[in-house]
Amino acid sequence: MTGSARTSASAPASAPVSDLTGWRRAPFTAADTAAKTTHDVYEKGEGPGVVLVPEVPGMTPEVLGLADHLVDSGFHVAIPSPFGTPGRAMSAGYAAGTFARLCVSAEFRAFATGAHRPFADYLKALARDLAARTPGPGVGVIGMCFTGGFALAAAVEDVVLAPVLSQPALPFPVGGRRAADPGVSPQELAAVVDRTKESGLCLLGLRFSEDKGSTRARFQTLRRSLGDAFEVIELDSAKGNEGGFKSTAHSVLTAEVRDVPGHPALAARARVVEFLRERLSPAAP
């Protein structure tokens, strides 16, 4: 296997995957945060900076497939590894074990509503560091599933110009209040709203229509707050949908992508790349 995203020839209906080939690993400490948290960060590529935060259970081959696609698209990608084993393949047991540990983690506060989550401070520090080392006016941040809402929290930082929230799932939607919670504190949301009005910040959100983990109610909350600054891509996963998605489809940019022309998730991934280019090109405002 090479270090570039691909679809397996023996399983053409599978998602693009890749491995750790060519990725440079180094610890990064958010020294200006209260906890001075350290996580390994994997980097690769040249061009504007993009922080890609893995979904549970971690940096799987599918997450690395997306990462290498971003590298091939002209970005310098940084992947923090706050959980899981980089390169390890997805399995039910692996995912369940990771979820169990994260559910009780004070760094992520998986069930708290209206909450500031400490990992957001780490992510903002990483975004500032990457912005100082890469060309362009700022950086992008992509969060997915468990980490989806952290792209919104990171957008408090002025250097974050292209936040992408893919199927944001925190807080876990147990009850109506959690299902509609935006996944950040009121202060963080207000700061992001101010940026949309004062500097033209735009955000991109993605989900499947029938996804019970990343709810429509949460997106409605975000749309009410962010208005037209929040672009939403909702892929149809209802019964009989043209994309052939199951009603349980969740991972818009990884597990559900197919390298087939016209595939809805492939088109969504292409829009993410376009969004990053629009916001992060050196000529961007």
TrEMBL record:
The keyword Hydrolase applies. InterPro entries: AB_hydrolase_fold, Dienelactn_hydro. The keyword Hydrolase applies. Keywords: Hydrolase. Residues 46-160 form the Dienelactone hydrolase domain. One of its GO terms (molecular function) is hydrolase activity. This is Dienelactone hydrolase. It comes from Actinacidiphila epipremni. The lineage of its organism: Bacteria, Bacillati, Actinomycetota, Actinomycetes, Kitasatosporales.
